[in-house]
Write a structure and sequence with these properties.
two-stranded antiparallel ribbon, 159 residues, mainly alpha, 2 strands, 3% strand, Four Helix Bundle (Hemerythrin (Met), subunit A)
């Protein structure tokens, strides 16, 4: 084995590492902020830093619990649409939303731990997907929302 080969992780390890990096970055975006700052709306949509974390929690539950786990959203107690998933309840706090996110991440890890990337999962309403496709979709969404979080945090701290 050459030294270059040692530097290359397998695809699954790389995907897991990227997803974990973005999960952590979204949580870190709330670090040091007050509850008011975390809820502050700076754009016309319902997007807030706390709402972003709530949304990605929902999004991961959709892909890992509904799509892979084959449990319908209604049974999971999930709202029906992405737009609704950003909305904050009066009792949502940085601590409660972060705890829910961490729980969803742990459930997601368990859902895929024994599945190969090529496994076909059938729980999503739009049809079958491979586990690899789910990973890439989740990674895409997490990366996009990390960018949103960076900008919102910058605006909050500048204001």
């Amino acid at each position: 084995m050459g030294s270059f080969d040692v530097l290359l992780d397998d695809e699954r390890t790389q995907l897991d590492a990227f997803i974990e990096e973005y999960r952590g970055a979204l949580e870190a975006a709330l670090g040091g902020l007050s509850e008011e700052q975390a809820r502050r709306r700076l754009v016309p949509s319902a997007t807030t830093l706390l709402g972003l974390l709530k949304h990605v929690t929902w999004m991961q539950r959709v892909w890992f619990e509904e799509c892979i786990g084959r449990t319908p959203r209604r049974e999971l107690g999930l709202v029906g649409s992405p737009e609704e998933s950003f909305r904050l309840a009066d009792d949502d706090t940085v601590a409660s939303v972060t705890a829910a996110h961490r729980e969803a991440c742990a459930t997601a890890r368990a859902a895929v731990s024994e599945l190969p990337l090529d496994a076909v999962v059938t729980g999503h309403r739009t049809g079958p997907r491979t586990v690899r496709w789910v990973y890439l979709q989740v990674l895409r969404e997490l990366a996009q929302h990390c960018g949103h979080a960076d900008i919102l945090r910058e605006q909050i701290l500048a204001g």
